Amino acid sequence: STYKLAVIGGDGIGPDVTQAALEGVEAAALRFGFTVQTTDFDLGAEHYLRTGSVLEADTSAAIKDHDAILLGAVGDPRVAPGILERGLIVALRVAFSQAVNIRPVRLYPGVESPVRGVTPENCDLVVIRENTESLYTGGGSHFHAGGPNAVAIQNSVSTAAATFDAVEFGFQLARLRRGRLTLCHKTNILVHAGRLWEDVVTRVAEEYPDVEHDYVHADAMCQHLPLDPGRFDVVVTDNLFGDIISDLGATVQGGLGVAAGANYNPKGSAPSMFEPVHGSAPDIAGKGWANPAAAALSAALCLAGLGERAAAVTLEAAVASVLAELPALAGPGMGSDTLTLGHRIAERVSSIEV
Ligand code: NAI
Ligand code: MG
């Protein structure tokens, strides 16, 4: 089969890591007998500074006409914070109903976790984050701004429909993995939203009697995740808590260079979007120092999302194999620059036995 991929390299290190990831995808396509047709979309800071607009309606429609989206990162010191991130990434997540954010937290051999006791054997979990609601809907009001009597009201919205999508995806994934699901929330304090999440988990759990489920408060999660990651298989959580604990997860798994993510539309009504967790890293942009592993692992999630499971597993294994050699390779001129690593990953995709 042929898959149409929309490619948005974006800003800073985004285009380089995306190109490296695409090499891995193309090697996988060759090996597993499918075809990938890519369309590059020139979006991000340059486009915005040139045109004054972040994402035109016809561009969005053109992106929609693809099977999946690979995104590098956006963000640029010349553009006020939030304009590109909200105007492009959040806009695409909402427009394409990408209700489920998938964040694997896996420590690959050879990658060092800053947390003592975390090993590849005990660190392999997936955070599933509801991607459109909670406090991030943006609604609210601000009175007496800037003054001593200022009051800000920030609304949080949770619907059973979006919560169901995230929870159901979590149970499906847990069934394919180790059969354990943990709800992470703050039901003792956020009683209304908490009640809704608990109700949805209880309802969906009835359809998955083979999956065990339990509950951990979001604050307690900040201790358990680094100290005992092996206790978790699939963690489902709301938008705010998911943002925070998946960054904690990125640290536990060895940093932004290896943290992959997906914004997934579980209904297939529009393309899902696959992107590393990191941003455009202006501090190292253009230097060739960016680790493309996070982007390549996101591309592996993309292949899984397209139904190419063998290709996905092989691309992940290729990235893991290259990561395992990295400490020996690291350093200027030692073949650890972004595009060289991309070539190595692609070579490994062609040859590795999985
Ligand atoms: P960042 O993730 O771009 O960088 C944080 C630190 O990690 C930097 O020191 C950077 O050099 C390092 N780093 C990031 N990715 C790396 C990689 N692949 N290999 C090696 N080192 C890596 O976050 P920061 O600096 O807070 O944000 C920079 C810009 O990116 C901002 O405009 C921000 O709004 C935007 N951003 C965009 C995101 C996206 O496109 N999804 C996500 C996060 C931030
Ligand atoms: Mg975040």
Automatic annotation (TrEMBL):
SUPFAM superfamilies, per database record: Isocitrate/Isopropylmalate dehydrogenase-like (SSF53659)
Top enzyme category: oxidoreductase
GO MF: 3-isopropylmalate dehydrogenase activity; magnesium ion binding; NAD binding
Record Pfam families: Iso_dh (PF00180)
EC number: 1.1.1.85
Required co-factors: Mg(2+); Mn(2+)
Oxidoreductase is among the record's keywords: yes
Keywords: Manganese, Metal-binding, NAD, Oxidoreductase
All residue ranges annotated as the Isopropylmalate dehydrogenase-like domain in the record: 4-345
NCBIfam families: PRK03437.1 (NF002898)
Name of protein: 3-isopropylmalate dehydrogenase
Protein species of origin: Nesterenkonia alkaliphila
